[in-house]
């Protein structure tokens, strides 16, 4: 099966960001192996740990609104590679169609779309989002190698299309479940600061940086700051 890229090819992406690749922190073989090994263990462990909750989540979603349990959306990964990102459905089925109508209510800046009291989010969906349980299926993306545990959050093609060359540098690394933006306030942070945090990760990534983000993730999830 052929691999699709948002920019056409990895070479086209590197041409777009110009000298941006020079800002990528060296990722030696030991770091890459350790990171991938950790991703596999963490994803499998997370799936086993959260598996008992699966029947309850499925039941709650099905009881509240008709439609699929999972929400699948095309996202842009490392070097512009396109992949299907999975989440538990937290919105009504026709949420994407309603997005155009709600465009004037968008509270986010830059290439992002966020409404704090989004009318498309279901009651169960709001709980799943605030507890981050909606992202549970993305552990499958981690196992497949589309994502890592730690890395910039993946965005949709329409938002990536608005990136400046500097902002596009965040695609030099594999997207992740948690990142500097995630542990620093999420939706409370404006778009430009979000992009700067991701570029900082690209420049400084390594075992120390990953451990720093990992240790801050659980408190951030419990605090729920900026989660909606």
Task: Report on this structure.
It is a single chain. By secondary structure, the protein is mainly alpha-helical. It has one domain. It is 42% helix and 9% strand. It is built from 9 helices and 4 strands. A two-stranded antiparallel ribbon has the order 1-2. The protein has a two-stranded parallel ribbon with strand order 3-4. Helix 7 links the parallel strand 3 and strand 4. The protein is globular and about 50 Å long. The mean pLDDT is 90.
Secondary structure topology:
Elements: H1 10-17, H2 29-50, H3 54-64, E1 70-76, E2 82-88, H4 95-99, H5 123-130, H6 138-144, E3 148-150, H7 157-160, E4 176-178, H8 191-204, H9 207-223
Parallel strand pairs: 3-4
Antiparallel strand pairs: 1-2
Helix pairs in contact: 2-6
Question: What would a concise description of this structure say?
Answer:
The chain is mainly α. It has one domain. The chain contains nine helices and four strands; from the N terminus they run αααββαααβαβαα.
Order of helices and strands: HHHEEHHHEHEHH
Report the helical percentage: 40-55%
- The span between the termini is 36 Å
Average pLDDT, rounded to a whole number, is 90
Low-confidence stretches: none
Order of strands, widest sheet? 1-2
Strand content: 5-15%
Strand tally is 4
- Category by helix and strand content: mainly alpha
Major sheet size, sense and barrel closure: 2 strands, antiparallel
What is the tally of helical segments? 9
Total tally of structural domains:
1
Radius of gyration: 17 Å
Overall geometry = globular
What structural keywords apply?
228 residues, 9 helices, two-stranded antiparallel sheet, mainly alpha
């Amino acid at each position: 099966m052929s691999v699709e890229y948002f920019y056409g090819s990895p070479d086209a992406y590197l041409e777009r960001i110009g000298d941006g690749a020079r800002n990528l922190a060296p990722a030696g073989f030991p770091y890459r192996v350790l990171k991938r090994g950790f991703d596999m263990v963490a994803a499998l462990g997370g799936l086993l740990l959260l598996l008992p909750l699966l029947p309850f989540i499925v039941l709650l979603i099905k009881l509240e609104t008709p439609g699929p349990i999972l929400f699948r959306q095309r996202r842009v990964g490392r070097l512009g590679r396109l992949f299907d990102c999975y989440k538990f459905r937290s919105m009504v089925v026709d949420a994407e169609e309603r997005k155009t109508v709600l465009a004037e209510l968008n509270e986010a800046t830059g290439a992002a779309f966020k409404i704090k009291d989004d009318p498309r989010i279901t009651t169960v969906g709001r709980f799943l989002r605030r507890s981050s349980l909606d992202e549970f299926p993305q552990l499958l993306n981690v196992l497949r190698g589309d994502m890592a545990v730690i890395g910039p959050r993946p965005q949709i093609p329409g938002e990536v299309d608005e990136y400046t060359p500097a902002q596009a540098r965040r695609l030099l690394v594999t997207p992740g479940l948690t990142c500097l933006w995630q542990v620093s306030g999420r939706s409370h942070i404006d778009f430009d600061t979000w992009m700067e945090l991701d570029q900082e990760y690209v420049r400084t990534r390594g075992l120390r940086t990953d451990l720093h983000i990992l240790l801050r993730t659980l408190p951030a999830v419990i605090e729920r700051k900026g989660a909606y």
